[in-house]
Amino acid sequence: MNRDYSSRGKNRARYLFAGQPSSHQTPYRPATALRPGGLPACIKAPAELDFMDTTNPFFSTDRALHSSGHYIGRNAPLPLGTFTKRPGNTILFDSGGLQFGRNPAQWRGNGSRAWALGFLEAHADEAITLDVPTRVITPGQLPFDSFGTALTTTVDNNRYFARHRSANMRLLSVLQGETSADAQAWYDAVKVQPFEGWAFGGSRRTDYIHVAGIVVRLIADGLLTPERNRLHFLGVSSLTHAVMLSALQMALREHLGDEDLLITFDTSTPAHLMTNGLIFGYPNISPTSFAMSVLKPPSGHVHMGWDTPFPVTSSRISEKLLISDLCVPATTRQSGWDQLGNEIVINHNHESLLRGIDDANSVMEMPSAWSSKLAPDHIIKAYRALRTMFNHADPIAHVRRQRASFAKIGGATEGQ
Questions:
Q1: Is 334 exposed, middle or buried (CB count within 10 Å of its CB: 0-12, 13-18, 19+)?
Q2: How are beta strands 63-67 and 90-94 bridged, if at all?
Q3: Domain membership of residue 194 as a residue range
Q4: What three-state secondary structure class fits 377?
Q5: How far apart are CA 186 and CA 178, in angstroms?
Q6: Across 208-234, average pLDDT
Q7: What's the CA gap between 299 and 225, in Å, rounded?
Q8: Which InterPro entries does this one have (predicted)?
Q9: Is 24 inside any structural domain?
């Protein structure tokens, strides 16, 4: 029976897996092309790995992120795959700004703007505007050699999108900045061309005192209304960040009287772990830990014949999975995992993370007397500060009182 994560915790922030092209394509490749010798017993068809399809026997979700940066310059429509638009699902695309920033030779000014907007309108339900992330700024390397050029280019991109957009697609304007001063300057520049929501990038996105300040400014400026009630946080998915964003969402929904306001967040962590031969286990939640466990299972060519159960069963697909189901030797690969094995591991990691986020939120939603015995004190204090911020005359002063707790959160990542 399929586990449907789209229906869990309607009041919680939602995790979006930032999937790679392989996760888009693999479920729709012929089984014989993936495993000429036949599929493992745990899966009847590659299409069962499409986690956006509720008919698969493992798990499903109705939201995911995919990047147009994987396809810069492509004009042909993407083939049918996991991240294809379909009724009931919402695919958020980012615009490829990170890839343009890392390889500025690809940048063609209005040509790149036109390509990005056209690609997004063809493939996305929602999209992040084309920004130049501040972390790719490289002094001396044109055209993105300073904060000023990155911001100016982003503002020009926003104007182009606003002028030329034609599809019924929600756009989220990006907020960047590596310092508080830069983040405030960026906000002041992009707020004059608002879209239908906001995406938080840059290193300040995990500074919740800063985030609370930006949210209060958005409200004061009339830019967090039912028409602009989507917030997305780029590149975060630790259990700590998941519950902080849930607390912020609940506070905002109550304060604004908007039950449709939604906070989402993304990483490619399930795939990143796979590339390093790692898997998620169960969440470690206790007064001294608040993180997913990470394991390294046998994954070599020599393990092809290991009919040994997968070391954890924290996902539906892992319940009948054997070590040998993943390993198919090939002289062209260091790892024993082939493409199908990789996608099975990604499927496991994705669901395990969703399950861990569910567990973490459930602990934080318990009565105080219970949660205080199950989670670290600084996480509980930070969570409650965000959750109750609008119960106070000065929400930012209230959040700042827990500065020490937020400092311990820092940029927490999976496995830490």
A1: exposed
A2: parallel
A3: 11-271
A4: helix
A5: 10
A6: 97
A7: 49
A8: TGT-like_sf
A9: yes
